[in-house]
Amino acid sequence: KSSLTQRGELIGLRGSTLSSTKTRSSIVRGPAPHGPTRPLNLYLVFILIALAPLFLFGCVNKPRETIEPGGTPPGFKLQDLDGAFHSLDKYQGNVVLLNFWATWCVPCITELPSIQQLYAKFKESGFIVVAVAVDDNKESLIKFKEKYALTFPILLDTDGSVKSAYKITGVPESFVINQAGRFSLISDPQSRDAAVRIVGPRDWSSAESVLQIESLLSQKN
Asked: Domains of the chain: which residue ranges?
């Protein structure tokens, strides 16, 4: 072949190569598909719809722990002097007097005999006393319980977690929880002021205190 013919063939070959390269380049640089977008989006929607009741009812049904009238008391699980565990949930359906105290607290020593009297009067009617001992040791509590013939459960808050949960700033402090497991307002026999948190000692065997507990026991949860 002549040199012109060979040169023409080379030029044609280079042209076809460049054309092929441009074609491949345009394909590679084009917008790449991201897969089946619509089916994937629908799949995510179905997942969210399926999980919605879980999130919704999980938030709605979980009681909010607040120390106010009708509020849900913070839950706990503590050991008594015999090593048995007690949880607040265990007493659902009963009226509970929750008392925070200590053996070294003089006002507590004054108050506890009246709590024992109230407990003895209503224990067969669905009334429970839960005495949470704070900043105390087991040996002192056992001696104290025997000395004052206390028959209601005394629980050990050894790490102070329950004391913190109820924001206890001193002893004695008490709360009354109704049959529905909610904080109740209790009136002070002296001032007639009603409160959820009862600060300081009280004569729980007084006629006013007895009437208030009787009223709570008569209510249906």
From this structure: 3-61, 77-218
Distance CA(88)–CA(202), nearest Å, equals 23
pLDDT, residue 66, reads 73
Q: Report the C-alpha gap between 32 and 28 in whole angstroms.
A: 8
Cα–Cα distance, 185 to 196 (Å, whole number): 5
17-50: per-residue pLDDT in tens?
444 444 444 434 443 433 444 555 565 555 556 5
* Tokens found for residue 48: 């969210």
pLDDT at 53 over 60: no
Distance of alpha carbon 18 from alpha carbon 113, whole angstroms: 104
In CATH, which superfamily holds the domain spanning 77-218?
Answer: Glutaredoxin (3.40.30.10)
C-alpha of 16 from chain center: 75
Taking alpha carbons only, the member of 166, 171, 186, 43 closest to residue 111 is 171
pLDDT bucket at 161, cuts 50 / 70 / 90: very high
Three-class secondary structure of residue 164 per DSSP: helix
CA angle 140, 162, 120 (to 5 degrees): 60
Distance CA 17, CA 19 (A): 5
